[in-house]
Amino acid sequence: MVTRLVADLLGELNLNVREIHSRKPQSYKTRVSDEFRKSKGLILVTSDVSARGVDYPDVTLVVRVGLPADRE
């Protein structure tokens, strides 16, 4: 998964990073999402699973990696 690769690369730079993608259990996604909302300086690497209807207040930068599977 691209998210794992990007998270691993950022982790090698000693950055505080978490990842979310569709293969992770919902309980994990919820926990990481909550942690991201509460933290400062945490980098969240996610697939489009988190791009649909999820709001993260005070996020100032979003970098999209990869392309969606279809045009929808």
TrEMBL record:
Catalytic reactions on record: ATP + H2O = ADP + phosphate + H(+)
Key words, A-Z: ATP-binding, Helicase, Hydrolase, Nucleotide-binding, RNA-binding
InterPro entries assigned: Helicase_C-like, P-loop_NTPase
Gene3D superfamilies for the chain: P-loop containing nucleotide triphosphate hydrolases
Superkingdom per UniProt: Eukaryota
Keyword set includes ATP-binding: yes
Coiled coil region boundaries: none
Gene Ontology molecular function, alphabetical: ATP binding; hydrolase activity; RNA binding; RNA helicase activity
Keyword Nucleotide-binding on entry: yes
Domain Helicase C-terminal: 1-72
Pfam families to which the protein is assigned, alphabetical: Helicase_C (PF00271)
EC numbers for this chain: 3.6.4.13
Family: Belongs to the DEAD box helicase family.
Stated role: RNA helicase.
Free-text comment about domains: The Q motif is unique to and characteristic of the DEAD box family of RNA helicases and controls ATP binding and hydrolysis.
Protein name: ATP-dependent RNA helicase
